[in-house]
Amino acid sequence: MEIDALAAVEGLSLSADVCIVGAGPIGLSLAEALGEGGREIILIESGGRNPRHELVELNTGEGAGDADPLLTESRCRGPGGTAALWNTALYGAMSAKFTALDPIDFESRSRDSRHAWPFAKAALEPWYAQAAAVVGNVSADPPGIFSGADRGPIEFPSGGLVNGTYWFGRPAVFTDTMPARLRSASKVVLLSGATVTRLSAARDRDRVGEIGWRSLSGRSGIVRASTCVLAAGGIENARLLLAAADFDFATRSHWLGRGFMEHPVDGTLQLTTEMPELCPAPGYYGPHADDRGRCVMGRLGLAEDLLRMEDLPNASLRLIPDFEPESRAIRWLNAAGRKLQPMPVVHRPLAAIGTRARRSATRRPRTYRLLVDLEQAPHPENRIMLSDGVDRLGQPRVKLRWEWGQEDERQRQRSLAVVTRELERNGMRVARRTTGPGFNTCSHHHVGATRMHPDPDDGVVDENLRVHGIENLFVAGSSVFPTAGWANPTLTAIALTLRLAGHLGRAG
Prior knowledge:
Layout: E1 2-4, E2 12-21, H1 25-36, E3 41-45, H2 52-59, E4 62-65, H3 68-72, E5 88-90, E6 93-98, H4 125-134, E7 161-169, H5 172-183, E8 188-192, E9 195-201, E10 208-214, E11 220-230, H6 236-242, H7 249-252, E12 265-272, E13 288-289, E14 295-302, H8 304-310, E15 315-321, H9 326-337, H10 351-360, E16 367-374, E17 383-390, E18 396-402, H11 406-425, E19 429-432, E20 439-440, E21 473-475, H12 490-507
Parallel strand pairs: 1-8, 2-3, 2-11, 3-8, 4-18, 11-21
Antiparallel strand pairs: 5-6, 6-7, 7-14, 9-10, 10-11, 12-16, 12-19, 12-20, 13-14, 14-15, 15-16, 17-18
Helix pairs in contact: 1-5, 1-12, 4-12, 9-10
């Protein structure tokens, strides 16, 4: 069922087994997973029927360095959360790209051994498979390297470049489908329009006793639960902990709010080639149907041996055809897409894209823009803090200090040099672009401000996502990542959340 906090009775008091703060992809996934196990769930969501401008006002704060767009442009309140802002255009509608982190991303590759995950990727593999099903794939198996494209991937010598895959999903899974299911679930209450304003300690001080909330209409209430989970996003999770006066989390953890990371994208390189796999259209490296009927797109990565040898952060390359006007390419995609069932199920007509491209191209398609997705290291000075200002609910606003520093820039230039070298070793020519997109520091991926580490001196949550020192408080989402890797974080965040659901199910 759903309760609209804007019209709720004043002083409404609710109780459940689990209270989840935030109904974005992470909170929704957790609520469904726990609800299937018979737990009583209260899902508190700040957005609802409020006017959008009032909700955006709650996201404003102070930005330092390169942080300003991250506070308002990258956050959205309401069921589905930031899925409503997904911005990968495909078949005339918005989508998101999904992929898993690489095994090397779970390791520490810096001189600081604290920057490692408390487990290897293998421990997360079963949950990755379940997460793939959650985001809307036909099968739970991640896409393989072999696909239904009319031309396969390039075969690279070992130890250099490697092939990888994205697959695509629609936001409606999180903005419409999952909220509708939860509204009809007998053991789930969606409390919408309620902004959490207080985490109150129980008498023994090592538990959350109740969660206080207020609505923009002035109503207020409380929720009591045996287990509390913050799933409010990469910035808001940290802000809620910093603002919890009963617990003084900032004193408990030096890392709270620190190590905030983004995924900048470099667009300064241009590739020219006559390789048959890329001429006259990208084939495997463009959107197409894989052998399981899912919409996928190939990419290029750097082999683990290469990353270790060069001591580089991770990175991934997307190939964007530069030989046809974008509007014509979009028309081809839309024409093919109209023949398909609604996403995420796609079928063979996508192969017609490449055929039509070859017939229509006015010159040979040999040139591509390279978009290089970059990994940023977890710098302690990139951090979330509380500002001196308050919002209309009386809550301290966030202050975010984030920038792409000198060491980040040095590693970016080294990565571009290695990418260029490896492409040219394989017969392609790479040059710096003089027009088009350059270096974009913002991918709207918020990672790392409530980092995971088994030692409370080096992290905010433990390997089971429990806040150190608090028996019944957990944090879910990309804010718990110790390192960011290069990949879009949603799939990994959902996998971690499903792992948390399994842990809470066993504990309960």
